[in-house]
Batch of 2 targets.
Target 1
Amino acid sequence: MNEAHDFSAQRAETFAVFRNLNDSADLPEIADVDYFFVASEGEIDWPALADALAAEGYLCELVDETGEDAEAPYMVATLTEQPLSAEGIWIGEEIATRIALARGARPDGWGFSA
């Protein structure tokens, strides 16, 4: 696992972003929360990452676009029907991040849909 990862800073950012969203919009009480992961460097075994996340209850989708404007592949790990709060988002984010870091991926944000 990447010991250099700053979980305290990641948590603080998650709480700040949630606070800003909550202040500017009427958020749903329950939502599907998506966590995004990209390769740290080089090749990554995306199926192994998906399997490890799925074992913890995440639904996983690899987004691997093709074409001229395609971005690098990334994984979306979703927890469905979650109570929407900064703490709830963080708990799911921390678990998924630890799994991803151990498999060569790094976090790249989160989002949600009602």
Note: The first helix runs from residue 7 to 24.
Target 2
Amino acid sequence: MKVNPKEFLMNDIRPAIEEDAKILSAIRLQIDGETENLDREKGEAYIDELGFKQLIKDDAESSNLFLVAEAHKRIVGFSRCERNKLKRFSHKAEFGVCVLKEYWGYGIGKNLLKESIHWADSNGIKKINLSVLETNDKAIKLYKKYGFEVEGILKKDRVLSDGNYYNTILMGRFNE
């Protein structure tokens, strides 16, 4: 019997702490250079260690959710749910996730998503929004599996390294 090593990767999801800031800065920079699925190119909108410390502190104080994923005692990804501060939109949160390419396919993104949905449902958040590149089929399939629906398409929203324009899909999950 052939064993799939991916089945044995243990990963833990936990809240980010200020001591994670240095590694978060480094892995965000690395992830941005590994994929075009995200909004940024490597180095754009760079957040240094102090910036991440402040973000983690602000998130804790404002009831946002900032999670890190660990595999083999190493941070390999993270996600954030940012609540909308405006009263008319206070029922919503924006979700985003990043995972090192080396760790794609291990269920880390799925686990971060599941924890974020649980947090939202437990904290009175009625709607989670996200955006995803139209070519990111695996992510779109995952989001749909967890109750997200396509709410709109931003046509020719971004240009990638091949010089072509691609659509951004806007998705949302409403918890009644």
Note: Residues 116 and 137 are 20 Å apart (CA to CA).
